[in-house]
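pasting for ref
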Amino acid sequence: MRRNLTAYGFMCGALFCFAIFAWYPMVREFILGFQRTNLIDPPEWVGLENFRAVVQDPAFGQAWLNTIAFTLLALVCGYAVPFVVALVLNELRHARAYLRFVVYLPVMLPPIVTVLLFRWLLDPGPGLFNQVLDFFHLPPLAWLDSADTALISLVLVSTWMNMGSATLIYLAALQNIPPELYEAAELDGAGVFRRIRHITIPQTRLILLLMLMLQIVATMQVFIEPYMLTGGGPENATVTVAYLMYQYAFVYGGNYGAGGALGMMLMIVLLAFAAVQLRLTRDDKS
């Protein structure tokens, strides 16, 4: 006990932070879901009234559709692209450290800096993306100002912001694969794609499943991008579940009960994904 006292001290600090900033808000959200309160006057218990009000809101279905669409699009970009980048970095023999730093750099930037950067890049007038389209004699796009491209634009921003961490995790997993497997495959005449299919993917299966679950959980809670870039527009095309929770609590007259009820629904969905991932991981280990 005395020998590990310092370690226990650091652990207590981490547990305290989790209790204050993660566990207590979840418990508080659960309680608010069954109350009508403005956080000033005494709360009134209303049972399932908040849940019924949230489900009957026309924005409820749109928010879930947008969140699911964002998650699926992010799986195409934010899940696959980092793995491909990690494969490329793992094959390099020169400048690997520099390129890892370049890939991870967006993660170190504050989100507001990234948002302001992409607000300029996606500007429908002098934005860099439209300048590139003009260079290739293609028509400009409205990007964030069009319901057809706004959600896709948010996916691009989110992928650029967060792919660095996933890439390094994939790269660490790739470097733990025994090189003898690749050497044997090369002697048998296996090409790059066959080596990836029969060696790389099976050897990194657990990491791929874990990152899939983390990707789904993170993207279904997307908030910063629609809040900072589109405000849920245009035409509610980028209103997500997390952003609708914010609107209930801080825009629609402080309806904290409705926000808590919607947050509880989202938490149940995420717990279901986590349970599926744990089952898949357990079956894979067995």
